[in-house]
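step 3/5: co-fold with zinc ion
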Amino acid sequence: MVEITRRAAFAGAALSMAAAPVTKAFAFAPQAATQAPGFYRYKVGDIEMTTVNDGVSAMPIEDGFVRNVPKAEVNAFLESTFRAPNIYSGPYNPVLINNGRQLALVDTGTGEGALKSSNGLNGRLLMNLAAAGIDPASIDLVILSHYHGDHMNGLIRADNSIAFPNAEILVPEVEHKFWMDDGEMSRAATPRVEATFKNARRVMTADVRKRVRTYAWGQELMSGVTATATPGHTPGHTSHVVSSGNKTLYLQAVVTHAPFLFARNPGWHFMLDVDPVAAEATRRNVYDMLAAERMMVQGFHYPFPAVGHVEKTATGYREDIVQWSPVL
Ligand SMILES: [Zn+2]
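step 4/5: write tokens
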């Protein structure tokens, strides 16, 4: 067996560089300095899915980021997954569903206005839709999972005009009722929750409201796509089951936030879970099912392309993201 030590690896690299002969001049190719567009297609039976990335967050990790775990422990866990401490880079991944008759967009990202305020880190959905060849006017249905800004802000553009002018906007009825209720807003437990109430009202412009239709848990929203109750993250938080033939995909929205933290630690209570105890119960139920059924799962905050499987471990669950496929 050849043993590769750190010292031997570097020594080898130095040797091969020193030995490389300079035999020709190279054409000058400028560095690209921009990322490739973020969209990825796959099939669930006859249904075509397209993950359309909206970017990532950059949230400072403060005390209370995970309510029941000290900041130092969260940072140590992040570092154990080869990620930098102190900053939470949570992915945002809306998804298109094309069942051959209708085109739906599930969740809308942080909104075009965020592109500038985040210095390009997020607010990229419309750019990536364009790169994928999708005209926003061709989207028939926008389906929301819940009313957090990173899921609903993309309903409107930076100038507050409607982003998907021909789409009906399907929203979970429990969620809509909660966040639009002035009494609930007056009882908001924290400034953060109060801000969510205010943001929902900002995004629900007259133009948006005209297109809104509420849906119930258990309802089929388009052929092959059924809403399912996953409350806790928010009171009306909803996931969607996509089925075609003998294939099933579970669109989990935010049953876990990024899985490298919250699937691996299902008992961690993320600061944005409105009811963290209910969120944990939902998470364990759904993930036990996903692991037992070996069911494909797509997560809004999963690393791009945000689709994979989960398995049970001694301490929680572990995600396994799909391999890029060059053909559908
Ligand atoms: Zn959320």
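step 5/5: annotate
The mean pLDDT is 94.
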